[in-house]
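Case study 2.
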Amino acid sequence: MRENETHILLGPPFHRHWRGAAGYSIKAYAGGDVLFRIGRQWCRIGDEALVLVNAGQEYEFQTPADSGLFNFTIFLSDADLEDCWASLGRSELALLDDPVTKGAGLPEFFVTPLRPSPAEQETRRRLRELAESRTLGAAERTEATAELIVLALRAQCHAQGQLRRVRATRQSTREEVVRRVRRAIDACEADISKSFSLEDMAAIACMEKHHFLRRFKSVTGETPYQFLLGRRFARARDLLLTSDIAVAEVAQRCGFADPATFSVAFCRRHGLPPQAWRRLHSTERR
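Prediction:
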């Protein structure tokens, strides 16, 4: 790998154990978890989490022996990182008027586990299949790598936005607050059908209940109840549009007490009962 060239590592892990520092990178795996120590923080990276590492930042990891791990680590060139980061921070109109992003500067990543989006998981799945079948062409590899970079940096932008909303004198305090709140968010999103109380979420974040409530709202702009409800409705819309499963099962998978409660709540938010909404939007998509 040449210096200042973006490069993705695909396939089984190259190291059983590694310690040191390198350039900017995105650490991601599928098929299992790898425990990373980045500075003083420990992160478990795998199917449910990725992490972005700063240039020159010390990190260490050890991969489990005889695992089915598949590596998606991307080492970023300064030029590609600067270009992509600047493009995410500018409006569509500004990018059309002036596409030049050189000189915008390099970011300082907020090192925290980030949950991969469905789009990122799908890109990883496709890339892995092509790599394992030995049908991955150079153009497809470059395009998929660029897509993964954009999605990871977009998640980093979101995390930094949460960080800016927390009022605290010390940067380390703000970072710790966001990490704990995100820990509770990740637990909820991992099983949206489960009923999470305020006490449950606060315990996951290792925070006192009322302190957690204040900090959760400062980080996300919503209360835990509003956040969970929004996520459940988003999951319900996705299931209604992309599957033929019954409305009662959609309600169960999305954590609603019963189909009637789901139907009333869905109608209140979207103006139509679930089945009618499904018919309308299925027709629009066709």
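The chain has three domains: 7-160, 166-221, 232-285.
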